[in-house]
TrEMBL record:
It comes from Campylorhamphus procurvoides. Substrate binds at residues 19, 99. Gene3D superfamilies: HAD superfamily/HAD-like (3.40.50.1000). The active site is at 8 (nucleophile), 10 (proton donor). The lineage of its organism: Eukaryota, Metazoa, Chordata, Craniata, Vertebrata. This is PHOP2 phosphatase. The keyword Magnesium applies. InterPro entries: HAD-like_sf, HAD_hydro_PyrdxlP_Pase-like, HAD_sf, Pase_PHOSPHO-typ.
Length: 241
């Protein structure tokens, strides 16, 4: 009887987008218009690469970035929820699948002492170069037309489940907690017994509603959350069963 919890990171665990929060380190806390307008849909990682070059060129160092990132607030109720999951690891395996990067997530989880709650983190690999610039790579390559070029969360989830099965681990239920458009692809992979938990008022909830209106609803159950205490109530029910 084990459950798999899959979390997105930005606007789900934290109440902000880590990639846009880093702009607080820029001169005057903003990016030049040319850089801001250089984003092309589906190519966010490349865009952030240019942002990190701009920060590096302006002398923004690793310690300043770290200080800034660890001030991001967690979503309402999330600290209690992660504490609860950490105390009940015999029931819950827990992973993050995120379009952020390894360094940002690592800093934020370690600063709040939540690193041990998560069994694995799947996100874009990041390192600081010898000259002190933050560089980020695409997580993987894939052939999914629905997802950004650097990350298909369905592929990540499927590969994780396959690997767990090889180890003899299968899950009674998958609970997918997210907010964004790129969370729809893995949600559509979930089975009837699984549950999608989209954040209220965010893109994922709207896309799931649209599918239901188009008479092609997702297979899994859907439970909308606005505070992480809604998620905790559901997990407490699962634990009782």
């Amino acid at each position: 009887m084990k459950f798999l919890l899959v979390f997105d990171f930005d606007h789900t665990i934290i109440d902000e987008n880590s990639d846009t929060w880093i702009v607080k380190c820029a001169p005057d806390r903003r990016l030049p218009n040319g850089l801001r307008n250089s984003y092309q849909p589906g190519h966010w990682t490349e865009y952030m690469g240019r942002v990190f070059v701009y920060l590096g060129d302006n002398g923004v160092k690793e310690d300043e970035m770290k200080r800034t990132m660890t001030t991001i607030p967690f979503t309402a109720g999330m600290i209690d929820l992660l504490g609860f999951i950490g105390e009940n690891k015999e029931f819950f395996d827990c992973i993050i699948v995120s379009d952020s990067n390894t360094i940002f997530i690592d800093w934020i989880l370690k600063a709040a002492d939540f690193h041990d709650v998560f069994d694995e983190v799947f996100t874009n690999p990041a390192t600081f170069s010898s000259s002190g610039y933050l560089t980020v790579q695409n997580f993987h390559t894939h052939h999914c037309a629905k997802c950004p070029k650097n990350l298909c969360k369905r592929k990540v989830l499927k590969e994780f489940l396959d690997k767990q099965l090889e180890r003899g681990i299968s899950y009674t239920q998958i609970v997918y907690i997210g907010d964004g458009g790129n969370d729809l692809c893995p949600v559509m992979f979930l089975k009837k017994n699984d549950i999608a938990m989209p954040r209220q008022g965010y893109t994922l909830e709207k896309k799931i509603s649209q599918l239901a209106q188009d008479l092609s609803p997702v297979q899994c159950s859907v439970l909308v959350w606005s505070s992480a205490s809604d998620i905790m109530s559901y997990l407490k029910l699962l634990k009782k069963e």
